[in-house]
Sequence to fold (427 residues):
Amino acid sequence: MPRRIIPVASGKGGVGKTTFAVNFALELAKRAPTVLVDLDTATSSVRNTLKVPIQKDLYHFHRKGARLSECLTRLDPSVDRSGRFRDFAFVAGPIHYLEDVAAMGPELRRRLAAELHSLPADYVVLDLRAGVDATVLEFLPYTNSGALVFTPQLPQAASAAADLVKAMVFRTLRTIFAEQSEVFALPGIADARELVNELLVRAEDAYDDSVPSIDFLLRDLADVFGDHPLLIALGEVLAAFRVHYVLNQFDGVEQSHDRAVVPFVRTLADTVSARLDLTQLGWVVQDDRIHRANCAGRPFVLDDEAPRARPAAADPHLAQLESLRAAALGIDRRPATRITAARGAAGGKSSDVDALLGEQLDRLRTMFSGVRGAAGPRENLAYCVSRALALLQPPRLPTEFGMTQLASPEQLVRWLLKRLAVVPAAS
Ligand SMILES: Nc1ncnc2c1ncn2[C@@H]1O[C@H](COP(=O)(O)OP(=O)(O)OP(=O)(O)O)[C@@H](O)[C@H]1O
Ligand SMILES: [Mg+2]
Fold:
């Protein structure tokens, strides 16, 4: 099976990234070799959540010239009594704060990114730090979020998660429309170089309300250029963008909808686009046992009583979820060639957003009632993993959920050009 890299990010701190990343990686490891890498190198919380003897960690990688694959820690039999997690390993952050590892300069980031690809695992899960900076963005793919965690317990977490998506979308667009980008070699597109970059700056600037979002940017471009290959390029990027989110500390459908999903979707629609593909990977209930397990250094999924999760293919909820995915909130399945025809709606009218939110609530309710009988934290995790595995089935774009590699900007542009080569020109 090809290797997949799954970053776990959140924007806001303290929402359960590490809890989710550790337990998700453990649960994945029951299906295939999985390595969890602690990239929150300032606090290195994986090693506190998973207390086992560690011989080598990122200190040895950074300062002692060890290969990343030499810094793996496996669970000993005192922790993994049944041997069910023998295919799990993790790379710990340094034991105490070290400025050069915590700050993760460009050289360390480059070496880490390169060696992540050679870890001996089918799945590599990354526990990222909170906030939005290069140490987070560089480990996120260009066209999806990995798993984005937020929680109804902290309403600010939803807008922080939306901000992280915004940072990713604009990074992707800036890369594609960079001054020297090959995209401008496309026939008829060079004349839009200055305008698109000016509009991108304005769309990203929350204090400039002349272009509040990318949907408005598309509308403005359509007004100036009419049907133009640039609109097709932009449409392709937005159509390929994926957001996969997990609700942690879930406390019921209505509360989660009101305090997490609504602010997340509204912020995204207002500041980025109502056209993004949003998919819910699942949720993890608020449960004191989770916190106690973390404090004891023994993640809850390690519990020997854990039931075997149903295999992805046989899970009836997965079929349901797959059909939901096609119509997931905010997906605008209109082909890029029709973006100009939709320019009237490109402003993300609030009635559209309301309708989409209503759909999302219905789906949340259906999904929740469908698995209500199995709603404990371990079952939640098994469900998220089944869901993720279903999404990881080939054929895949190299840039999609569970990306096969951390794509470089050059690869991103090449990918777009390839995609555009098969998109029919606007009529
Ligand atoms: N579902 C849950 N139920 C109960 N407690 C939880 C749950 N998820 C996380 N916690 C607790 O919430 C706190 C924050 O969790 P965690 O450290 O996983 O968040 P984080 O997003 O990784 O934080 P940071 O941004 O500091 O890295 C921890 O004390 C953890 O034990
Ligand atoms: Mg953490």
Notes: Residues 155-176 form the longest helix (22 residues). The two ends are 41 Å apart (CA to CA). The longest strand covers residues 242-250. The chain has a mean pLDDT of 81.
